[in-house]
Amino acid sequence: MDTKTRIIEIATKLFQQKGYIGVGLSEILKACNISKGSLYHHFPNGKEELLIACLQSLNEMITKDIENIFNQYPDTTEATKAMIDQLIVHFETEGEIAGYTFSSIVSEMASLSEPVRHACSLLYEKMQSIYTKKLVADGFSTEIAESLALTMVATVEGGMMLCLTQKSSSPLKTISQVLQNLLQAFHK
Questions:
Q1: Is the pLDDT score of 102 beyond 80?
Q2: Sequence-distant (≥ 6) Cβ neighbours of residue 141 within 8 angstroms
Q3: Is 110 a residue whose pLDDT tops 60?
Q4: What is the pTM of this model?
């Protein structure tokens, strides 16, 4: 693994655990075992540029996982259930689901820059796009598919945060069933 990739991987974990504001540059340098010069060589604009690289890396990883799951199932209901089941298993075996969400980072984004806000927005848009595409393939109109996709993103993201704060997978289990019922109700 090259230095830049290693920095992104370590910084992503730190940002997810402590948030952007909660992680100092010195903590990143120490965790990565690099000098300030090395960090600025790879990220000339500093911590914010590193955060954007972390968000882009998460975007690629999360959307790749979602696309893989959604391509394996014939309809959105089954794909959504499988995706949430995967999150539940990960939470129950690992005790966390930080790698599948960046809500802990996003929660403080309102006070940050436009480039950071935009990087966050791109992930949510990509997730919605995957869901919308599958819903349209299931026969939903584009308008309803887009509304349902937005609801799915908000519901799953919120469910992950509830699991983390409650230290229980129950919220995702409930959400899985509710989303299945919602999709079936709209499809009739």
A1: no
A2: none
A3: no
A4: 0.84
3-state secondary structure of 35: coil
CB of 102 within 8 A of CB of 120? yes
Determine the Cα–Cα distance for residues 144 and 31; give it in Å rounded to an integer: 46
Per-residue pLDDT tens for 51-74?
999 989 988 988 999 999 999 999
Arithmetic mean of pLDDT over the chain: 89
Six token digits for residue 78? 């089954």
* Predicted pLDDT at 101: 66
Distance, CA of 76 to CA of 80 (rounded, Å): 6
Running DSSP on this structure, what letter comes out for residue 45?
A: T
- CA-CA distance, 60 to 76, in Å (whole number)? 21
End-to-end CA distance of the chain: 50
Tokens of 21: 């504001």
Per DSSP, the three-state class of 23 is coil
Q: Which amino acid is located at 124 in the chain?
A: Y
Side-chain-facing half-sphere of 163: CA atoms under 13 Å: 29
